[in-house]
Here is the input.
Amino acid sequence: MLKAFFSNWKRRVAQLVSMGIIGEWTFYGIFRCPFAVPYIGCGNCPVIQCPGRGLWLWTWILIGMSALVFGRVFCGWVCPGGLVSEILSMGPLLKFKINGWISRLLGFVKYVLLGLSLYFYFGLSNPRWAIPIRTGEFFKSVGLTFEHADPIWIYKTVFVLWALCLSVIISMFWCRFLCPTGGALEILSRFSLFRFIMNDKCTDCGLCRKHCFMDTRPSRKNCAQCGECKDVCESEAIEWKRLL
Amino acid sequence: MNRRSFLKSGSLALGIGLSSGNQAFAEDNKNKSLQVWSCGGLAEAFIPANQVFETKTGASVSYTGAFAGALGKSLLGGNATTEVFAPRVLELAKKLKAQGKMLSFEPLCFTRYVLATPKGNPAHIESIDDMGREGVRTVLIPDASPPGGQASMIILKKAGVEDLALKNAVKKGDCVQTALTDLIEGKGDVAVVEQRITRLPQFAGKLDVRPIPEQFIPPVPVPFTIGVMTWAKNRDLAREFVTFILSDQGQAFFERAGFIPARSEEGERLIQKYGVLDA
Here is the structure.
C-alpha cells in the first residue's frame, strides 16, 4: 500500500510539503473558523492563532493563477484536504460504482455549494455562526467552539466531515462532488494554458479512468492534472499539451 | 573501600540521584503549569504578559481567550474548569464567586469606547453629535457579538443621535473588524468601537480616535476582573500570576492594548464608579 501511495513520489512530496505549510490552516478552517465560509477574508478573523490570517490572500492569488496556468493542479498536488481524501479513498468499497447520471447530477452539487458560498460571503458579508475562540489549546478550543456554536455551524461542520469520511466508501467523494473550491477551479481550468489531454491515438479503453483516483480522464471534469494516467496508457494517447 | 565497592556504590548513588532528580524535575514542571482563561478581547494583552510570566517563573501558561459570556456559561453550567479567569462584566465574576467557583477577584482593567475615523479625519468628526450631521457616512455594527454591537447602539441612543446615525449609515454589519476595514478603505467616516480594536496590529496607526463622553457609555461591558478559581491545583502559582498581571509590568500590557489599567489613577476612579469590589 505504501509503495502504491508513493508511486508518484513527486506529487506526494508536493502534497506533504503543502500539508506542512497550509495543513494547520485547513484544520482551523474546518474546526475553529467561526464564519459561514472559511478560508476567505481571514485578515479580519478574530481567531488569533489561525495561520490563515497571514496566508489567505497570497494563497488564493496563487491558487487562482495556478488554475489558469495548470488547471486543477491545486487539487491534485497541493490541497491538504485532497491528500486526506486520497488516503481515505485507498481501497474504497464502491470504487467506480457512482457513475452515469448519478455522477453527473452529483457533479453539479459543488457548483451549488460554490454559489451558496459566494452568496454568504458577498451577499450576507460572511455571517459568523460560531463564537470565535481567539486563542487556546487546539482541542480544548475545538470543544468550546462546538459547545457554543450555532446549530447551523455544527450542521455545516458535520456535513463536511461526513462528506470527507464518505471517501472510505466512494472514492474522493468530497473532492469530486462537493468541494466548492474544486468547483471554482474546475471553471477556471477550462481556460488553463497547460494540461494533460488525450490525442488521436486514444482507443477509449478506459484504462486511464480505471487508474484515476478522481475517477475521470485527462482534461475531463475533475481532472486534477496529476499525470498518473500518462504512464498507464498503453496507446501513448495521453500527452502534456501547451494550449498557447 | 576497594575499587569494585567504589564503582558499585557510586553507580547506585548516581542512579538514585538521577531518578529522584528526574522525578523532582517532573513534579516541579507538573506543578508549574497554569490554565488561564479570559475574555477574548484581552488576548492581545495577555499573550505577551503570559510570555513574560513564563520567563520569570519557569511556569507554563496554557491560555484561552474567547467571548467571556461563552466561557462563563461553560464554567457556570458546564463541566469546564480553569485555574485563573479574567472575565468582562462584573456580574459574571460575582456569580462565579457566589457559586463557590471563583475564590476571589480583583479589578483588572476597563475598556474605553471611542469614535474611530479614517486617518486624517476627513469628515471632521469632533464629537458624537457629528454622527447625526448631514452628509456624514456612519458605519454601524448593530449585529456584532456582545458587547460590540449592542453597546455601540446604546451609546448612540444615550447621545440622542441614534435615528440620525442610522439614517446616515452606509454600512450596518455584524463584525467590528470589518467596520474598521471599511473606515480605512474610505467607505465610511466614523464608527463607535472599543479603543482596543483600533490598537490591533492590522489597524494600529491607520485610524484616528476621538473620545466619547463617559455619561453615554453603558456600564456593563466596561470593567474586567481577574480571579483565582477553586480548581487551581497550585494556588500559590495562580495568585503569583494574578499579582504579576496587576503589577506595573503586567498592567502595562493592558494599557498598550488600549485598556485603562485598574492600577492607575483613572482606574482607581473607575473602580469606585462601577463598584468593582469583591465584597
Observations:
- The longest strand of chain A covers residues 194-198.
- Residues 2-192 of chain A form one domain.
- The longest helix of chain A spans residues 9-31.
